[in-house]
Amino acid sequence: MAERHERFFDSSKLKCYLECPRQFYWRHVRHLVPFHEKTALSFGTAIHEGLFTWHKTYDIEESVDAFHRHWNDTMHEELRTAEKGEKLLRGYAERYPPKMEPFEFEMLEQKVQIDIDGIQYGGRIDGIVRWGGMNLVLDHKTASRMGRTYFDRFRPDLQMTGYAFMAKQLLQKPIHGVVINVLYFTKTKMDFIREISSREPFEYEEFVSVVMRLVDEILSNDWENRNSWMPNWTSCGNWGGCDYRDLCLCEDPEKLVPTMYRHEEWHPFDDEEGRIIVG
Ligand code: SF4
C-alpha cells in the first residue's frame, strides 16, 4: 500500500478488519471488488443523493432526479426499484416539509477528514443539526427490516461515534449524539422514523483509543507475506454473504480472482472537492 493511503482510515476500513482480517486482506491489500455490486448498497447510495438534494433545494423534482441519476439497477430485485426509490423520497418530503422540520441545519452533507495522532480519519457526514438545544449529527439510513432492537446497533458503533467525533473536532462544540433518520420500506409499506442515539464524553475517548489500537495492528501486519489466517466464520453470511466467500471456499482462490473480481482501490477521499480537513 502506498504510504499516503496506508495512513488513511475510515469506519468502513476498520470495521472490515474487525469483522475478518482475511476480508481486509482481499479488499484493502489486494484491492478486489466483485464485478457485481450489491443492490442494497447502491440503492442506499442513490437515496442518499436524493436526500442531499432535497435538503439543499427543498425541490422534490430535483431530489427525485438526483436519485435516478445515481440508481443503477444491476440486480433487478422486486424490492429495490426505481419506483420504490421515487416513492420513498416523495413520502419523506411529505412527512417532513421544510417548515415543519424540528431541527435546523448547521452543516449539510460534507466530507470531513481529521488528524488523530498522525492518522488521517475520514467520513462523509450527512449533516449536523441543532435540535432542541442539542448539536447532533444527522445520518440517513434505508432499512427494509426493523426489529424492536433496530436502533441498538448504533450505540456502541464505530461509524456513528466517528461521525460525532469528527463533527466535534470540526465545530469545536459538544456533539450530543446522532439522529438516525430511517427511511423504512417493504414491498407494500413505507415509514419514516427518527431516533436520537446519544453520546457521552467517555465514548469519544474510547473511540480514539480503539482507532489507534486497530491502526497499530493493521500497520504492523506483514500482509503480503501472510499465509495463514484466523478467519471470522461468523461474518461469512452477514448482509447477504461476504463478497469474498467464493475465494475462501476455494482451495486455490487465485484461480478465481480474475473471473470474479476487478481491481479498485479504496480511496473515498481522493476527490478533494468539498472536503474539510481538520487538524
Ligand atoms: S468469507 Fe468469511 S472468512 Fe472469508 S473473508 Fe469473508 S468473512 Fe472472512
Walk me through the structure.
- It is globular and about 60 Å long.
- The protein has 10 helices and 9 strands.
- The strands form 2 sheets. Strands 1, 3, 4, 5, 6, 7 and 9 form a 7-stranded mixed β-sheet that branches.
- α4 runs antiparallel to α5, α4 (39-57) packs parallel to α6 and α5 (60-70) runs antiparallel to α6.
- The mean pLDDT is 91.
- 40% of the residues lie in helices and 24% in strands.
- The chain has helices spanning 3-6, 11-19, 21-29, 39-57, 60-70, 82-95, 158-171, 201-219, 245-248, 253-260; strands at 8-10, 32-34, 104-116, 119-131, 134-143, 177-185, 190-198, 261-263, 275-278.
- Iron/sulfur cluster binds at residues 20, 22-23, 231-233, 235-236, 242, 244-245, 248.
Blueprint of the fold:
Blueprint: H1 3-6, E1 8-10, H2 11-19, H3 21-29, E2 32-34, H4 39-57, H5 60-70, H6 82-95, E3 104-116, E4 119-131, E5 134-143, H7 158-171, E6 177-185, E7 190-198, H8 201-219, H9 245-248, H10 253-260, E8 261-263, E9 275-278
Parallel strand pairs: 1-4, 3-9, 5-6
Antiparallel strand pairs: 2-8, 3-4, 4-5, 6-7
The structure holds iron/sulfur cluster (SF4).
Iron/sulfur cluster (SF4) is lined by residues 20, 22-23, 231-233, 235-236, 242, 244-245, 248.
